[in-house]
Write a structure and sequence with these properties.
Structural class of chain A: mainly alpha
Strand content of chain A: under 5%
Oligomer: heterodimer
Distance between the termini of chain A: 84 Å
Number of helices of chain A: 4
Strand content of chain B: under 5%
Helix content of chain B: over 70%
Number of helices of chain B: 13
CATH topology of the largest domain in chain A: Helix Hairpins
Largest sheet of chain B: none
Distance between the termini of chain B: 28 Å
Structural class of chain B: mainly alpha
Number of strands of chain A: 0
Number of strands of chain B: 0
Largest sheet of chain A: none
CATH class of the largest domain in chain A: Mainly Alpha
Amino acid sequence: MNILGLYNYWIVIILILIGFFIVIAHENLIKKLVGLTIFQTAVFFFYISVGKIKGATAPILDDRWQLYSNPLAHCLILTAIVVGISTTALGLALVVRIQEAYGSIEEDEIQTQDTQDQLECQLEAYGPRKQFLTKRI
Amino acid sequence: MLGGIYSLLSASFFIDLDAVDVAFTEASVGAGISTLLMLASLKLVNRYERKTRYKPLLALGVITITGALLIYGTLDMPHFGDPNAPAQQHVVPRYLNESMAEIGVPNVVTSVLASYRGYDTLGETLVIFTAGLGVMSLLLVSSRTKKESKNLVPADMRQQIILRVVAKMMIPLILIFALYVQFHGDYGPGGGFQAGVIFAAGVILYTMLFGLGVSQRAFHPEVIILLTAFGVLMYAGVGVACMLLGGNFLDYNVLRHDPIHGQHLGILLVELGVGITVAAVMITIFYKFTWRTVKHKYHQ
């Protein structure tokens, strides 16, 4: 009983780990965002479950009730949910632009394209000087 | 789709945990809007993940270690539902005991949100506004695309007579419900954040079934963009009005002769500002994603 009273944290931890796993194991950027969303809801659960008191009711004051859950946690999380969806939308917009620029949303493919571009840039930058050097020799 | 079901499930969890306000928000955001945005962007990028054999072993190792550490950390935590937990101690009893006398609003979440932590909520509203601005600038569309999109009604939606008829009856109810949630937030669960999202969901439903052109005639995009800023300005304006009347920033007591009436008025105006910004930002984000889809269609 003693240790089982902590089960709410374990549910939160399992959700966090699922989200974290998706974020680090997948190359697909949209999947990463889905993972972040799951991570985010896990944090919401954490706050709300910390605010819960056994036998209490929703924090809307009324004469019939004496014990209320924690209104502060609710307030923080309800704003966090709406902020979360707008930041997710921002992330999705970024992904859409990346798809348009690179033609792919797989992280490793983007990385390869970037290194190739960098190499070409360096070649161009050093190109004339190389010729100059060879002439002098 | 699964995401929507997940959100509805978590909303019912929240009700069970006595967090009705949060459940409300999660239901309207998760089931209504986030699923839709996910689907819209999946339409814009590749539909399927590349078939690849990634190596999950390293990731599995990392999360096992993290999980073990986190569970070790919980051993010192207070038990679930414990009334003596530290989280219930400091400022919360004051909110619960004094807020009726100080603010006079039965829903403590609303009074904490709009009055005690008014600065915080102003910040959150600004974050939402900024995210909206970010989406607007990332997904810029030319006016030509906008013109083309006016005639666009999803062809398969034309045939869905049942959907269209049902939606026609539902949409006014959704909008009225949003207004009820907005103005009844002092007494029951609700407030600007939830109302804004519900209102936007109604508009989005309308757009999906009757086409962008019709919807843009009713909710003109440029007006909506102005409204995103107007909501934030309204919130901050109430704060400045309080300062001009001799109080602190966002100290509503001075708005009326009676502090309680002042608090009521302040909370009402501030929540209205939040609601306007949230609804306008959500609608703008949806319009931007839709225009992007139209652009892709015409340029391929």
